[in-house]
Amino acid sequence: MALSIPVVWTDAHRLHDPDAGIWIGVRIPADELPERAEAIRSALEGAGAQVVQAEPHSDDALHAVHEPGLVSFLRGAWAAWEAAGLPDDPGQKRVVGYIFPTQGLLAGLEAHEPTATWARTGAYCYDTMTLVGPGTWEAARAAVDASLTAADLVLDGAAAAYACCRPPGHHVTRSAFGGSCYLNNAAVAAQYLRDRGVPRVAVLDVDAHHGNGAQAIFWEREDVFTGSVHVDPAYGWFPHFLGFADERGGDAGQGANVNVPVAPGSGDDEWLAAVDRLVGAARTHWSEALVVPLGVDAAAGDSQAPLAVSEAGLRETGRRLGSLRLPTVLVQEGGYDLSVIGALVRAVLEGFEEAAA
């Protein structure tokens, strides 16, 4: 039986070439590569999926989730970097931060906008791994359009739609980017569904790393439930400072955020028990639509997470999510083993369809 979930696509993802990352001061090879999306598309087309081109959308949907300063910075970051001559002197070919306005530095004072181009990055990017290049803005903005096009398909009656987009987005907060992410594609889609009349939306993040972006964006909201299963940051995993089980939401959103950290080495049983907790919480929330930041980096052998979930476990993850039988937007996040990423995403989507039928 052919895969019937429409796959939203944009060639613009190829414009983003991170070139490298800076990790603990060392330049390392990039792993969030164009080949990731190409491998996924190939596998899904092989399963009979229909590919739909992403449609342009207004910046209004973007500004509903992200602060103007972040959007403006990303839009002009490369041009400013190039105009300052930094690709030639000192020879840094990508935009990267070197100073960060932490609470300890500011000591309670409000940060001023720095004059130096090379200092501005730290005001918007919280790590040194997430580099901006000449096509990064165009690719990130097109990824948002892909997620919004998937949301449009669902609003028009499709049971589900999948945005095969990169760069990923689930680590981006309202005002800061990082974790190889630039704009929060899934959070934009969730808010878009709300703005078009869906009363209650659940964002269930099944990437191997904490979905800190949606948690931060919707922290004080009761109408958007956020949940994440991920490797426990207490064992030294990104994003390190948050992603713990006691983070439950604030003010009106108290109880509308659930984190289920799992220990390194966890396999199918532990992972699926955590997914079940998220699915149950979405039911309790009476969610009427679902957004899934979909990573497959929990798979055994993926270089970016120490988990051991099998392909069968990921297929079952799709089944558990599909059992909610909600209109669903799935948005691609992590997954870095090029030899299996396509098959793993296909397994999740097939499992989803099996349960949702």
- Give the biggest sheet: 8 strands, parallel
How many DSSP H or I helices? 11
Percent of residues in β-strands:
5-15%
Specify the CATH class. Answer: Alpha Beta
Ranges where pLDDT stays below 50 over 5 or more residues in a row are: none
Number of domains: 1
Mean pLDDT: 97
According to CATH, the fold-level topology is Arginase, Chain A
The CATH architecture category equals 3-Layer(aba) Sandwich
Structural class, from helix and strand content?
Answer: alpha/beta
Overall geometry: globular
Give the helix level as a range of percent. Answer: 25-40%
**Secondary-structure element string:** EEEHEHHHHHEHEHEEHEHEH
Strand order of the largest sheet: 4-1-5-10-9-6-7-8
Total DSSP E strands: 10
Superfamily at the CATH H level? Histone deacetylase domain
What is the end-to-end distance? 12 Å
Q: What is the C-alpha radius of gyration, as a whole number of Å?
A: 19 Å
Describe this structure in words.
- It is a single chain.
- This protein is of the alpha/beta class.
- Helix content is 34%, strand content 13%.
- The protein has one domain (7-69, 136-356): Arginase, Chain A, CATH 3.40.800.20.
- The chain has helices at 34-46, 60-63, 68-83, 103-106, 117-120, 136-155, 185-195, 212-217, 268-284, 311-322, 341-356, and strands spanning 7-9, 20-23, 26-29, 51-53, 160-163, 201-205, 224-231, 257-262, 289-294, 328-332.
- An eight-stranded parallel sheet has the order 4-1-5-10-9-6-7-8, with helices on both faces.
- It is globular, with a radius of gyration of 19 Å.
